[in-house]
Amino acid sequence: MGKTLSFVKVDLERDVSLLHKWQQRPYVIPFWKLNISFKEYEKHLEKFLSDKHQTLYLGLIDGVPMSYWEAYWVKGDIVEDYYDPHSEDQGIHLLIGEEAYLGKGYALPLLRAIVHFQFLSQGTEKVIAEPDIRNEKMIHVFEKCGFTKVKPIDLPDKTGMLMYCHRETFERRWEDVFETATT
């Protein structure tokens, strides 16, 4: 890719305006449904940042914030009611916030990097996702990363496609990428 990918934890004061702006994007609204006032979004983000079962990140390319990520433990999340989770399953949500980065092939390397990070937790054997069933582009990116479709699930805010990425599948698929990156 020839670019530096990085993730930084979301900071309320530093990031709330940027994240609110991204939530107002026409291509984000149908899937995130957070096109709310700045004050409401600030309260939402504050609540999410205080939730100990998840960590929020900005995704950066060459130091430029361009995406938002929610990495979470399935235990303690509503999605745990939709399958039989292992105690250390993790999940991921994402959005590309900067339009200039859409359709450029950045979602897959970023997703691959954060899933690799999640698998650094030795007990995690599976990372899950539940993108909106209508979001065919993201479902395709998840599949390219190593996720497989399991079943549609009716969540309170959407019908999601429950997807699994097993450690063994992921490591086999991306073995060369991460060996090269660490040598």
Automatic annotation (TrEMBL):
Entry's Gene Ontology BP terms: response to antibiotic; siderophore biosynthetic process
Gene3D superfamilies hit by this protein: 3.40.630.30
Pathway the protein contributes to: Siderophore biosynthesis
Keyword Plastid: no
Function: Acyltransferase required for the direct transfer of medium- to long-chain fatty acyl moieties from a carrier protein (MbtL) on to the epsilon-amino group of lysine residue in the mycobactin core.
Stretches assigned to the N-acetyltransferase domain: 6-168
PROSITE patterns documented for this protein: GNAT
Keyword Transferase (UniProt): yes
Protein name per the record: Lysine N-acyltransferase MbtK
Taxonomic lineage: Bacteria, Bacillati, Bacillota, Bacilli, Bacillales
Signal peptide boundaries: none
Source domain of life: Bacteria
Keywords, comma-separated and alphabetical: Antibiotic resistance, Transferase
InterPro entries according to UniProt: Acyl_CoA_acyltransferase, Acyltransferase_MbtK/IucB-like, GNAT_dom
Gene Ontology MF term list: N-acyltransferase activity
SMART domains assigned to the protein according to its UniProt record, in alphabetical order: AlcB
Record-linked SUPFAM superfamilies: Acyl-CoA N-acyltransferases (Nat)
